[in-house]
Amino acid sequence: MRVLVTGGAGFLGSHLCDRLIAEGHDVLCVDNYYTGTKDNIAGLLGNHHFELMRHDVTFPLYVEVDRIYNLACPASPIHYQRDPVQTTKTSVHGAINMLGLAKRVRARILQASTSEVYGDPEVHPQVEEYWGKVNPIGIRSCYDEGKRAAETLFFDYWRQHDLEIKVMRIFNTYGPRMDPDDGRVVSNFIVQALRGEPITIYGDGQQTRSFCYVDDLIEGMWRLMESPPEFTGPVNVGNPTENTMLELAEAVIRLVGGTSKIEYRPLPSDDPRQRRPDISMARKELDWEPSVALEDGLRETIDYFRHRLAR
What is the pTM of this model? Predict the structure, then answer.
């Protein structure tokens, strides 16, 4: 098939492009390089089934495709708070433009949504039926509410135009090709440990996250796209094993083998205390669950950053 991946030069997008090429599809990778980089897809540039286009999804795109994976949007707080108005535009205008394209060519379309639609949850673990507790005017709102609005648009296009949609709520994902300066906890801890710097933990270190290795996440995304048309989601895709920030820091220090100490700093505004998916729906509908253990995934990620920092 002809497959469009927006945000295809990003962390997740580039791994998805790899998977789609391996499946034998023709892939059109679209990215404006706000956070993506050509380095991430360098290994595909010589493949005649792969095409790269610089484009911003806040503007319409006219191409002929069978599948659309809409991953375009900065996903780390450092990046999406740098230009919050543009972040909201990317989620909302980008969704409108990609849904309009899907409607015109009758393509199936997948939205890369996020666990941030749950905000600082009062329900734990988070189930898809939970509507969330989101601050609509906070510093994270450009991302959280933008993604929530995008979900609204997807389901309205499904109801109003009978469009084939898939909505995936992605929980914390890590692995090779993460940006070392993206401000996310896994990349922060690994880079600090490799440089022998103190590991900075915000708050008391007891807030929790669930970390899914990128290969597992892409497998779940591919299975969702190819699931029966009547299954729309939203569906949680992530690792249901919960870890505190302190546990993650200690694991990174142990695997890197460095001498970094832990420093505690104030917790940022609207930072959720807990984050763990209930993946019962993914298990039932997609026959999916993660298989890569945290320490195994961290080793691969540490090796990637070790080579990248040595350039």
Answer: 0.94
